[in-house]
TrEMBL record:
GO terms for biological process: Mo-molybdopterin cofactor biosynthetic process. Residues 14-158 form the MoaB/Mog domain. It comes from the Bacteria. This is Molybdenum cofactor biosynthesis protein B. It comes from Photobacterium chitinilyticum. NCBIfam families: moaB_proteo, molyb_syn. The keyword Nucleotide-binding applies. One of its GO terms (cellular component) is cytosol. Keywords: GTP-binding, Molybdenum cofactor biosynthesis, Nucleotide-binding.
């Protein structure tokens, strides 16, 4: 028995750039994600830039998780190995369930682009209060990889055999 056809449903998506140096003027990765999700038919619920601080990251993401309107959060930056890369540490305690497959698939497709350097990516994802959260490296190329190769399909209710849309709050 096949899956019933489901039409595209727009989601409310927030974008967070984690960086000690980016501003609204030079945030190419955050702008890429905001523009791409809107081009795909989704609504930009909010966009912010925050310094790479565990508690400031958690505070913003927690607000979005608690907001019934926000269904997905896309995060760029803070996933590397420097002492200032804290995004996974900020997010993982917030997750009700971790989406291990996101990091695995991200590194698999990224390997085709940057080779073994992909092992230094700590891309993570999870679900929290019916909100899906995807965290990617800070480069625009990494965001393009994450969006085009994984996230865009997973935020499309017509993508089969499965996607995240049925699991998100309304």
């Amino acid at each position: 028995m096949g899956h019933a056809e489901t039409a595209f449903e727009p989601a409310y998506v927030a974008v967070l750039t984690v960086s000690d140096t980016r501003t609204e003027k030079n945030d190419t990765s955050g702008h890429y994600l905001a523009e791409s999700l809107q081009e795909a038919g989704h609504t930009l619920a909010d966009k912010k830039i925050v310094i790479d601080d565990v508690y400031q990251i958690r505070a913003i993401v927690s607000q979005w998780i608690a907001d019934e309107k926000v269904q997905a959060v896309l995060i760029t930056g803070g996933t590397g190995f420097t002492s200032r890369d804290n995004t996974p540490e900020a997010l993982i305690p917030l997750f009700d369930k971790q989406v291990e497959g996101f990091g695995e698939v991200f590194r698999m497709v990224s390997y085709q682009e940057i080779g073994t350097s992909t092992i230094q990516s700590r891309a993570v994802a999870g679900m929290a209060n019916k909100t899906v959260i995807f965290a990617m490296p800070g480069s625009t190329g990494a965001c393009r990889t994450g969006w085009t190769k994984i996230i865009k399909e997973q935020l499309d209710a017509s993508h089969r055999p499965c996607n995240f849309m049925p699991h998100l709050g309304k």
